[in-house]
Specification:
Length: 186
């Protein structure tokens, strides 16, 4: 029997669908990204709620959306969460990620979760976990690990990632590179 919290989580999630991003979802991803950039938040909000750092162009998001689409959460037609797919063939388009790729050059067969963000009013309700489970399914058979990089100062994001099973892979100044093995039994 699910506990009370899980029951409420289930009820909440029945309004929300987790799916692959289509072309016409990408502008909404960029809007959510923009509203959660560190530079657009107060220092207090960035500390308590988390923040994103990298800005993507529409063209880059389109390129990254193939062959494995970004994972999104929608409430009706509204995108309320996203987790970006980033394959190595796009890394030359994002110079800010050079240090990440250098630090993991000895790791094989991984996919990078390029950035994750959930609309503020939908946080703390299992949307992140559900998006992660969708990614796990999508990448099973193609990759062995999901890797991402989180700012040391983004405690909310670090704790959320650790809670769903990520662990430290490398630490570089100001950043933690974390990973999780794809669970092929799911
Ligand atoms: C980071 C972010 C995606 C996490 O999503 P979220 O909905 O806030 O995550 P939750 O609060 O549901 O936490 C997910 C899990 O982490 C756990 N968790 C969260 N904060 C925790 C803490 N301080 N200590 C221990 N566990 C914690 C939750 O209990 C939950 O676990 P559960 O599913 O077993 O209950 C979201 O806060 C966000 O989009 N923030 C703004 C942008 C951002 O920071 N993106 C990340 C960039 S790297």
């Amino acid at each position: 029997m699910p506990g009370r919290n899980n029951t409420w989580r289930f009820l909440f999630l029945t309004m929300i669908t987790i799916q692959d991003a289509q072309e016409d979802d990408l502008l909404q991803i960029l809007d959510l990204q923009s509203r959660n950039l560190k530079i657009n938040l107060t220092p207090e909000e960035a500390q308590s709620e988390g923040f994103v750092t990298l800005i993507h162009s529409l063209e880059l998001l389109q390129k990254m959306n193939h062959p494995f689409a970004h994972t999104i959460a929608k409430d009706g037609n509204k995108v309320i969460g996203y987790a970006l797919t980033l394959l190595s063939d796009v890394k030359s388009d994002i110079s800010e990620l050079n240090a990440l790729y250098e630090a993991i050059s000895d790791v094989d067969n991984f996919v990078v979760m390029g950035q994750v963000c959930i609309e503020k009013s939908y946080r703390g309700r299992g949307v992140f976990r559900s998006m992660y489970e969708r990614m796990n399914q999508k990448f099973t058979g193609s990759f062995d690990y999901i890797i991402t990089e989180v700012s040391e100062s983004n405690r909310r994001s670090l704790e959320a990632h650790y809670a769903i099973g990520f662990s430290d892979l490398r630490i570089r100044p100001g950043w933690r590179i974390i990973w999780k093995e794809i669970d092929k039994s799911q």
